[in-house]
């Protein structure tokens, strides 16, 4: 899953990026509101962490412009502790959740996982597909009760397919959601990762849909 962090405090932005990367996210950073607004309108994100006190363009204005332009990705705003008016204004502007500074990185990660799950219609932290169980927060996969070792990129791709369970996901969509902006994206890599996943999980679980991409389906639904 791919996340945008819009934060002008370089130290906090770096810590956030490190924590989210460790949690399995691909992360882009924007140091001010203008760049954040641009990235949010031109790139594809599963969620955004948006500070409200930004230079060049404040966070509320960024959020309002995203929503006005039809950008619907989940947004978690960062507010000053004890400033309840910021929280209310942010939620009224279209934010989905908020955290007050300072905050624990583990809570930020958990809230982002929850926002992304809800955005895809999954209330539970685990997604099941026949004998396959995907623990999104724990980045763990089991097949018929046995753990399956996946690389970070393999897990990201499987997670993306799981969030669209039963529906085709194009290579373009997978590429946009797996890689950060500064990564050398190659759609052929998607085929390689899918091939590795099929060897580890079994061919029937990941189905090729001609002209549309791939979809994750329970074995009985395959074909």
From TrEMBL:
Record keywords: DNA-binding, Phosphoprotein, Transcription, Transcription regulation, Two-component regulatory system
GO cellular component, one term: protein-DNA complex
Residues bearing PTM 4-aspartylphosphate: 51
Entry's Gene Ontology BP terms: regulation of DNA-templated transcription
Keyword tRNA processing: no
Residues of the Response regulatory domain: 2-116
Record bears the keyword Thylakoid: no
Record protein name field: Response regulator transcription factor
Organism: Rhodovastum atsumiense
